[in-house]
Amino acid sequence: MDKSLLARVAAPIGVTMALYHMWVIAMGPPQALIFRGTHLAFALVLVYLLYPFAETKDGHRRFAWLDALLFAGAALGLGHLFIDYDYFINRIIYIDDLKPLDIVAGLGLVIVVLDATRRVIGWALPITALLFMAHALFVTRVDPLTLLDQLYMTTEGIFGSTLAVSAAYVTIFVVFGSVMERTGTGKLFMDFALALTGRQAGGPGKVSVVSSSLFGTISGSAVANVMVDGPITIPLMKRTGFTKHFAAGVEAVASTGGQIMPPIMGAAAFVMAEFLAVSYFQVTVWALIPSILYYIACFGAVHFEAKRQGLVGLPAHEVPRLFTVIRERGHLFIPIAIILGGMMAGYSAPYCALAGTLACFPVAMLRASTRQELRWSLIPEALEDGARNTLAVALACACAGLVIGSITLTGLGISFTNWIIGLSQNSLLLALVLTAVAGIILGMGMPTTPAYIVMVSLMVPAIMKLGVIEPAAHMFAFYFAILSAITPPVALAVYAAASLAKADLWKAGWAAVKIGAAGFIVPFMFVFQPALLMIGDWPDIIHATVSACIGIAMLAAGLHGFFRMHLRHYERAMLIAGALAMTLVPGWIGDAAGITLLVLVLVGQKLLPNTALPAKG
């Protein structure tokens, strides 16, 4: 069957999926199993239409019979749930024996979820799920029917809380982002960033930082941010003098941060809200200061590198005026303001996202500058695109349910917690380092959401047992699941940016690590100083924030070798040491040490200017 024909068939199904989720938010969801099952049904139908098992060079599918067989497995597994719903909710799990139909339908759906996940996001997560199920069956000797009962017949497996988050939260926010993109908000973000920073030293790099932080509102994916933002900013950075690997690194780091920047963060943030039983707005409050610190680090890296190389900004005639941008397109910020205002007023995040989505087209029609870009066909296109962009998260959440169900049934999480505590010898710092490494390794092969889910199941309980408060522990796991996108050897955001910049992957990867180095320290900062999560008294929050901002800027300067002028090696070491003192040592002692080293560097530059390496520009 021709792939283009399948895409045409998938289009109305994608639109229907988006409209269904919008209707559910407006009218109220059905029973949990029905809602989650319907969400998964839409996702599986689209996967098997859009991701063929194999293709010939002329675009035709091979082995269509295998697709049909797997599709039948999905229909059986979900159809059994919908038709025999009363049986599902009235039986006693682990007590009532599974019927032959339960076994066949359950096995079929497990296989289909694994296969569909592989088609959308690759082998890493399905293999992880298989390993955990194998551990349950062959190491802890769980009865196979008991495991199948857990994974298929309850809300502790495929139809668990992670799939609920995808259905209730992620889909509508992804649709919102797609609608915003179609109404011209992307151009607003780019022009706004250009107007703010385009003429400064290293202006195009700073444009990348600012615009990528804004693009996070319309894409929860680092790679997607790179592919939208990078084609514009990377050539500008290269043209103004940045090396191609540095330009790729800047774009990768800036785009990765979009997942941690409120008001609309990556999908894992919604999962965190579900796990912690708090509102999504509360998660954005916790994330605000750390996300600002992340972007200060990235912005500082661009600034100091530009100063070190003597680079200048863009010519005035290439930079739009801020007043003009706001006048012509500033109204496109209104849907984001609606979402933020609604959540602050206490409305649910999905309801606010629905309101913002419905406002996008009317708002774009307010002015001729954006109205002329609209056409009616954009509405179904945006809905279809939103449904497609949901597939990776939906299947990742369903497959992650297999992991969570296996861990819960075997008690592996408790065993792993004890192992981590024993390995770290009750050292919190060592336990945090182990957790960070695990997050980076997990994130290399799978998206942020499942990487975070696995960390919550295995690693987070260990650091909480060593005294880390629950929000800080979850945010720590969340950050390192995200930072894997810029960490070699598997750094997906770097791969995307390097391809645009035509840069060497390893050089771009290490440039990204250097640019984002301060970002790797931020999670340790809010573990030791919860005030950075806005937990505590306001004087403590303000003190911790100011201290962290100074420390982050010092670290960026030390790593890139410029602070008012070129730095000698020992001055760089002093700034880095002072930065670590201010960011990782809570209280006035760390601040005093950091400020003292900063003052010594400034005095040294005044008394002994580095004449061998004069500052350029």
Characteristic terms for this protein:
single chain, mainly alpha, two-stranded antiparallel sheet, 30 helices, 4 strands
Short note summarizing the structure:
The chain is mainly α and 617 residues long. 75% of the residues lie in helices and 1% in strands.
Describe the structure.
With 617 residues, the protein is an all-alpha fold. It is built from 30 helices and four strands. It has helices spanning 3-27, 32-50, 64-83, 85-90, 100-121, 124-139, 144-152, 161-182, 185-197, 203-215, 222-239, 244-256, 267-276, 280-309, 322-329, 334-344, 349-364, 368-371, 378-410, 412-423, 428-445, 448-458, 460-465, 470-483, 492-501, 505-515, 517-528, 538-560, 569-584, 588-607; strands at residues 54-55, 61-62, 562-563, 565-566. The chain has a two-stranded antiparallel ribbon with strand order 1-2. Helix 1 packs across helix 8. The protein is globular. The termini are far apart.
Q: What strand line-up does the widest sheet have?
A: 1-2
Number of helices: 30
Rg over CA atoms: 25 Å
Termini, distance in Å?
Answer: 61 Å
Strand content: under 5%
**Low confidence ranges:** 612-617
Number of strands: 4
Main structural class? mainly alpha
The level of helicity is over 70%
Quick one: biggest sheet?
Answer: 2 strands, antiparallel
What's the rounded overall pLDDT mean? 89
* Shape by Cα distribution: globular
